[in-house]
Every structure is written in C-alpha cells, then in structure tokens.
Amino acid sequence: MSCLVSEFVISTRGKGTYEITEQVAAGVARSRVESGSVTVFVRHTSCSLILMENADPSARRDLEKFFEQLVPENTSWFEHTAEGRDDSTSHIRSVLTRSSEVIPIANHEMQLGTWQGIFLFEHRRAPHRRQVVVTVIGNALDSGAANR
Amino acid sequence: MSCLVSEFVISTRGKGTYEITEQVAAGVARSRVESGSVTVFVRHTSCSLILMENADPSARRDLEKFFEQLVPENTSWFEHTAEGRDDSTSHIRSVLTRSSEVIPIANHEMQLGTWQGIFLFEHRRAPHRRQVVVTVIGNALDSGAANR
Amino acid sequence: MSCLVSEFVISTRGKGTYEITEQVAAGVARSRVESGSVTVFVRHTSCSLILMENADPSARRDLEKFFEQLVPENTSWFEHTAEGRDDSTSHIRSVLTRSSEVIPIANHEMQLGTWQGIFLFEHRRAPHRRQVVVTVIGNALDSGAANR
Questions:
Q1: Residue C40 exposed, middle or buried by CB count within 10 Å (0-12, 13-18, 19+)
Q2: What is the tens place of the pLDDT at every residue in C70-118?
Q3: pLDDT tens, B23-81?
Q4: Which positions ≥6 away from C36 have C-beta within 8 Å?
C-alpha cells in the first residue's frame, strides 16, 4: 500500500466552472498506485468541486445559471455581506455541492465515466487562486501483489 | 493494509431511487478488510448516490417529488436539451447530490446507522444500466494486527 | 500504512450547526498517520455534515435560514410526517448536503483551509445524540519511510 499527497493551484477568472481533470490525473500518474482511490479537496469555503458532463459546455451554462437562481445574490435578508453580495451565496453554493470528490483508481487510471469531468466551481465574482489537494491511496505497482 | 476495487451494474427502470446497500455490502464481504472504509462511486453524470431513510418508502417519495419541483423539467431557459427535457435536470440533480459516498468499516461491516440505506438516484426518464464502483481500503483480517 | 477507526457522540440542542473540528482533529492526533486522509461520517439521515466558514457566525445564520426556505416545513404535500413536520425536511436537507467529508492529512495535520470548519448540521427540532465515525488512513509516522 502507498499514499501520496500533493497540491496544485488553479487561478480562476471569477464565477464559473473550471476543469481540473488533467491536473488530478497528473497526481495519480505521479503516484505508483495501481488500484485504490484519489481524493480531491478544495481548501476554501467559497468555491467547490463537482463531477459534471465534460462534452457540451451548454450543460455547464445551465448549471451555473440554475445556481444563480437557486441562491440569488439579491437576497434581501442576507446578513453576511462583509465581502460583498457574493459572500453568503458563495458559502451556500459550496455547501450545496462538495468540498471533496473521491474517484476510484484501477489499472493505474481514474475510473471516471466517459462523460465525467472534475471541475472547480468558483462562486466568487473576483479572480482567485485556489488550492486543491490530491490524495492518492492504494496498492502500489511494485508492492501490489503482496496485498492481494 | 489491503485494497480491493470491484464493480457492479444496476439496471434502472427510469426516474427513482434504487437501494444498492446489499451489493455494496457484498463488495465489503469479498474483501478481507476488517477496519477501514468503502467508497461507492457512479460513473455517470445523470444519476447519483444518496444515503437515505431505508424503512418508510414515503420518505423517498417526498424526496423524489421535491427534486422534481426544485429542478423542474419545464424550465424554459435550459439550453442543454439534446437528449430530452430530462437532460440538464439530470446533471443539475446529480450535482446537488453526490457521485460518491464513503462509509466506514469496523468489525468487517459497514458502519451504517440503523436507518441508513445506500441508494442510486436515477434522474433519467428512460431505463439505464448504471456502473457502480466499490473500493474497499483498510486493515485486512490476516494483516491487521501488524498495523495496529 | 495504517488505519484507525474511532467514534464520538455529539449532543445537539435541536436545529443548527455545531462545530466538530476539534473532535475530528483529536482522532487524527490519536492515529500515527502522517500523510493520508480522514473521513468523517454521520450515522443518521436527519442530520448531515458540511465544511463551512468558521469565523463569522452570520455566515451560518444565513445558511440555516436559506435551508428553512429551500425545504420548508409547511410543505403541504409531504407524506412522510410520522415523526413531525421536520421529518421529510430533515432527510431532504441531509441529501442536499453530505453524510461524509474527506479531508487530506499532511505533516500529521488536517489540511483544512484557514476558514474551513467541520460542522454537524442538525435538521431536527428536538435535541439528539449524534454518532460520528472518524476513519484515518495513511502513512504512519514510524512506517511511512518504507511506503514512500
């Protein structure tokens, strides 16, 4: 068994979804893990993670517009507005999605479905630098046989 | 330590919740893991996973009806409708729930609460065959002593 | 590699968010895991887990109020009301948030961001005793070198 924790930064240009599948796959490739799982984690409460349809961008436009309507910025009773009108909306949208995603690994590759991409969902209007932690745990290539 | 990745398929009859607790428990039983965790993962973006009250079916009917109202199919501004009026709704409902669930294992058994069941939540109108990956990681029965 | 599963109970005073970061950190400290991940899990379907802004309580008040409006207790068509008007709302709010959170560990510490706290989100009006399971998996301090 083996475990590798690494981190990367993604710079966002404000609200939207940003694919990070390649960066996570690179973390898996760097590990020697042949079968196991990878956990992706964002160290923030105003952006989040989703697995989403990765082919047609219109699916993500619908998703982003849906969240604008579900948690609207012009909510009159929000108290927590110190950092702007996107303050409470960012935290609530994060809670409604995920701070971590766990994806299985087999044959040294993530077992994502054909249409699944990993995306960082930025909820802030302003550009941000977001820290993403990648944790790979499982049977290593050179020690796996002993564990099976 | 030990790790076992397996997969099963569940055939859905269209929209609704389908209990898969037994199939996941079988994956745990096949592993030699005595304490650790099991990750359940769906390889799709138009169905998802939930942990839900497993006793009274009316709880699940309320849940399913709630999602029909929260993300309605007749949303006029949806762009992503190539696969039908359940296209964007399926992706959005998946994002609002989960693609993976992680459940602890102790004494070689999942530590679900009394009323917790694992369900696949199908968001498509048509029947589908859904791939579910089960990853068990932890102390194995015959090697656990050395790890404690 | 090492794995440690432990459990603690948190007594809630009814609806609201209760920080449990310290209890989870104690579970990580008790393990010998230097790098890996910790999974937090609630054994219930009427409370849930979130990672949330931990500094300004107004962020949590907005969140709690938002959920009261998103899944209102006075929904006329709810069938599942055997345990009161907070019955279906509790399950639905759990499904919209999380039953588990996975947080990476490096340098023997959880890699939470500066403003991230782990909270139990109680959806029931009445006080409850909630069981939380903490699973730590990763490279142990005294065996880590062999695994890298």
A1: buried
A2: 999 989 999 999 999 999 999 999 999 999 999 999 999 999 999 999 9
A3: 999 999 999 999 999 999 999 999 999 999 999 999 999 999 999 999 999 899 999 99
A4: A3, A5, A135, A137, C1, C104, C105, C136, C137, C138, C139
Q: State whether C53 and A71 contact (CB < 8 Å).
A: no
Give the separation between CA B144 and CA C108, rounded to whole angstroms: 21
Residue in A with minimal Cα distance to C35: A5
Write phi, then psi, for B90 (nearest 5 degrees).
Answer: -65, -45
Spell out which residues of chain A touch residue B132, defining contact as CB-CB under 8 Å.
none
Segments of A13-108 assigned E as strands: 16-19, 33-42, 47-53, 100-106
Name the 3-class secondary structure at A76: coil
B116 vs C contacts (CB less than 8 Å):
43-45, 99
B1 by Cβ neighbours in 10 Å (0-12 / 13-18 / 19+) ranks as buried
Residue type at C80 in one-letter notation:
H
* pTM for the predicted model, two decimal places: 0.95
Task: Flag if A95 and C50 touch (Cβ within 8 Å).
Answer: yes
